[in-house]
């Protein structure tokens, strides 16, 4: 949702979240679905309430500022709430595995 394609000649990555945000009204609302699924999945995986709260704040900031025409679209390119939330989940999973004495492969499987 946050890193679908790179703008040629730059290091800037755009995602479907940024592109959906260009559709007035509907786009930002549609982007909340996948963002909510990440938080739901984190809850199912046992993420602590503090991590879930941070994820919810990331989504709230993205939705609030993202709803401002033009400024919100530019903000979405840099904020990348979904990537932030996946990083929070990955951190939780790595810490849980370290506590159990196991090592997990935290290599990203796909783009978020």
Number of helices: 5
Query: How large, in whole angstroms, is the Cα Rg?
Result: 15 Å
How many domain units? 1
**The biggest beta sheet, please?**
2 strands, antiparallel
Listing every helix as H and every strand as E from the N terminus to the C terminus, the arrangement reads EEHHHHH
Mean pLDDT: 81
The side-by-side strand order for the widest beta sheet comes to 1-2
Shape: globular
Q: Could you please describe the fold and organization of this structure?
A:
The chain is mainly α. The protein has one domain (5-100). It is built from five helices and two strands. The protein has helices spanning 16-20, 26-44, 49-66, 71-79, 81-100, and strands at residues 5-6, 13-14. Strands 1-2 form a two-stranded antiparallel ribbon. A hairpin with a 6-residue loop joins strand 1 (5-6) and strand 2. It is globular and about 45 Å long. The termini are close together. The model has no long low-confidence stretch (mean pLDDT 81).
